[in-house]
Known about the structure:
Layout lengths: L3 H54 L5 H77 L1
Amino acid sequence: MKALSEQFAELAVRTRKLEDEIAAVKQETREKLDARRAAIHAKVEAGLNDINAATQKIQGEASSDLTALRSKISSDVAHVKQRVSAEVTKLDAARAARRADSYESDAELSIQYALYAIDQAEAAALDAIAARAEADGFTR
């Protein structure tokens, strides 16, 4: 059986490891969010490229009208990209806030349980010390 001091040291090490893992997950979550946003922006950009390629294909037919059309399409696409980006940001923020609230509640409950467990461990350790002292008193 490990000494109580060793058990408490192990608890401290595991708590520190948990803190490090939480910090890593926060970074990973941000990277996933950034990847999702980059994918959406790439999709919008690919659509614009497709439109530009199609307009170049028919360029010989109506050059001046085509230039005006390209300008209008680019302006419309830029406007849509701006609106989509704003909406995605709002949705991601709301979703992230709800998820964060849920996980924070879970963490709070887990921390409360851990504090209770520490109190229980302290009570058990004091009981063990008292019992050992009593046992040692009988053997003298």
